[in-house]
Write a sequence for this structure.
């Protein structure tokens, strides 16, 4: 109540008086300070620290790796022999079925308990149906009772659509090697899918009993950690890329990332975050290192906010399973990669998956890296818990903890709240803000009468706009034909955009009428929206900092700049509307085609909206509900604030 009455000249605390006096000048400096804080994050001398191991029990690199004998390397060719034998049968089975059967035979020859899972996957109910097969084999631990499990996963294709046969070959060699060892205290599961993240999600649902549509019966214990392999065709690799982000910003424990990088360094096949090698410290300038760190951080923001991931590790993170993907970095002129690219489509579907094998030295280095990593994970006495789960990585072997980057989000949220307080104090006419004690009763009566008249209308506008956003959210699930293809999805979004603009114009036209001019106050409406956005961003910043920053950029900042003062000229309104249209969902979704799908913004045969919808439906990605319930409505409410008198 003190906060409410302080705007009407009532006696209040000195802090509120000071806030009222300077609130109009604080909101924009706070936002600028938050942005500057973000810009300082890539500077390694400001916030980042050297990475270290918190869980000493893992002892990375403390054992002698044994993988790499002729027998183990030869085991990688078992996959090729099984595929060739399956093709020679001449059966009418699909390529997916032939591959699954061949790999199932390989796992059984090695001595694993193996099973084939047949599953179907739909983007939305009845739309985007995919059929596939997962194959998994379990190596039972000789020194435990199958309570805990480690997992190695791969897909038949890489995230960019290339063949991932090298990863499957290496997995067969590792399975053969692991089955000969007696030190395993945890079961080791090998999973291969032909549908990428969709296949792994179907396998995880069946493994944990979430879905019984495609059950599996050969199971292990609780999965402690998962390692995904992505090795495109090449004779050798220049290094490894480490990808660790989940679909909704989930992150594995930082110790896991550090283990992989440390062991890869020992095996002399360096692992770089997102495949980006740091510039040499003694040969590069401060600006070069800053731009490299900024580029790496932007990649992490893109992955965590939008949900673009490399590898099949992302679904594991939803189940609180620490997981990451290691991907081979192909040299620019690798002959095997070029040959595979040139003639991959001219051969039999099964043979096309069989480019020349990796060089033995590369197989040995990769195998030993994975062997040492799995042995370190085998040493875990309990789930990862010592190190950070919230962090950003500006460079290889360096990290920024949540305590160092979260103040940026706090400053951005504070800018919205301070402006909301100022607008709330300044709402209504000037005679309601007098400090004359003789008019106190009359002034308070006017103020409460003003609130009773305007608050219901303000909340009514907010609810109507959000009802349209809720309609945008649920229609694809009620009428899936609306997003049957990328083209219909694009048409659906444009139809909703036209409906939204029509509602904005209708609402604004109602309150332009002289009889309704006092029924809503633009300051009050903007203050209410700012409080709503600030609370949303504050909650989001703790769960997914990258997404909170993106949402501030596309919703919070335009809201902050909307109608910065009580202008009345048409030119100001047109300029403000142009800014809001430039940051509207339609424009951002068109631009996200380039960032998400790698296509032209004007290519309407693809729809990032449909990608967000699938990620929300199956992987609980927050971008789609935030788009419908926060970003879209706030953009429309900013237009209403601009247009109403």
């Amino acid at each position: 109540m003190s906060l409410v009455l302080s705007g009407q000249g009532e006696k209040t605390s000195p802090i509120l008086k000071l806030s009222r006096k300077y609130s109009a000048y604080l909101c924009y400096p706070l936002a600028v300070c938050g942005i500057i804080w973000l810009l300082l994050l890539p500077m390694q001398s400001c916030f980042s620290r050297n990475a270290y191991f918190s869980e000493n029990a893992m002892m990375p690199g403390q054992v002698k790796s044994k993988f790499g004998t002729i027998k183990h390397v030869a085991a990688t060719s078992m996959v090729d022999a099984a595929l060739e034998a399956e093709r020679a049968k001449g059966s009418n089975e699909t390529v997916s079925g032939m591959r699954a059967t061949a790999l199932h035979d390989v796992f059984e020859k090695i001595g694993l308990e193996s099973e084939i899972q047949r599953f179907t996957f739909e983007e939305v109910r009845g739309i985007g149906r995919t059929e596939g097969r997962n194959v998994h084999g379990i190596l039972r631990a000789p020194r435990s009772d199958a309570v805990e499990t480690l997992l190695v996963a791969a897909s038949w294709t890489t995230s960019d659509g290339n063949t991932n046969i090298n990863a499957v070959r290496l997995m067969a060699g590792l399975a053969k090697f692991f089955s000969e060892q007696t030190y395993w205290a945890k079961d080791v599961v090998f999973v291969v899918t032909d549908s990428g993240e969709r296949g792994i999600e179907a396998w995880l649902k069946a493994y944990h009993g979430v879905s019984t549509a495609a059950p599996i019966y050969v199971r292990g214990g609780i999965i402690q950690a998962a390692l995904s392999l992505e090795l495109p065709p090449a004779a050798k690799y220049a290094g490894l890329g480490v990808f660790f982000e989940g679909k909704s910003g989930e992150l594995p424990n930082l110790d896991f990332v550090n283990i992989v990088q440390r062991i890869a360094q020992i095996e002399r096949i360096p692992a770089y975050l997102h495949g980006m090698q740091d510039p040499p410290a003694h040969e590069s300038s401060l600006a070069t290192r800053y731009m490299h760190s900024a580029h790496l951080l932007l990649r992490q923001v893109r992955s965590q906010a939008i949900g673009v991931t490399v590898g099949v590790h992302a679904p594991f993170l939803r189940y609180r399973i620490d997981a990451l993907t290691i991907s081979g970095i192909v040299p620019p002129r690798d002959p095997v990669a070029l040959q595979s690219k040139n003639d991959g489509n001219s051969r039999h579907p099964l043979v096309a998956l069989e480019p020349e094998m990796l060089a033995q030295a590369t197989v040995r280095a990769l195998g030993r890296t994975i062997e040492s990593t799995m042995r370190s994970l085998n040493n875990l006495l309990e789930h990862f818990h010592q190190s950070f789960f919230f962090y950003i990585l500006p460079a290889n072997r360096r990290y920024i903890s949540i305590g160092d980057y979260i103040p940026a989000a706090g400053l951005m949220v504070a800018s919205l709240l301070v402006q909301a307080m100022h607008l709330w104090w300044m709402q209504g006419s000037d005679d309601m803000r007098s400090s004359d004690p003789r008019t106190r009763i009359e002034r308070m009566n006017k103020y409460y009468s003003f609130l009773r008249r305007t608050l219901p209308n303000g909340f009514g506008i907010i609810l109507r706009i959000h009802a349209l956003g809720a309609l945008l959210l649920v229609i694809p699930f009620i009428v899936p034909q609306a997003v049957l293809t990328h083209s219909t999805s694009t048409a659906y979004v444009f139809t909703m955009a036209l409906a939204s603009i029509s509602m904005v114009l209708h609402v604004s036209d109602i309150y332009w009428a002289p009889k309704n001019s006092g029924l809503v106050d633009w300051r009050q409406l903007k203050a209410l929206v700012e409080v709503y956005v600030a609370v949303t961003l504050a909650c989001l910043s703790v769960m997914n900092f990258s997404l909170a920053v993106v949402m501030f950029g596309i919703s919070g900042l335009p809201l902050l700049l909307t109608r910065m003062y009580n202008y009345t000229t048409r030119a100001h309104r047109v300029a403000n509307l142009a800014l809001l249209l430039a940051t509207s969902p339609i424009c951002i979704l068109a631009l996200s085609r380039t960032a998400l799908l790698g296509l032209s913004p004007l290519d309407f045969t693809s729809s990032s909206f449909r990608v967000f919808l699938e990620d929300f439906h199956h992987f609980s990605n927050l971008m789609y509900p935030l788009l419908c319930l926060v970003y879209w409505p706030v953009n429309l409410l900013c237009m209403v604030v601009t247009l109403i008198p």
Observations:
- The mean pLDDT is 83.
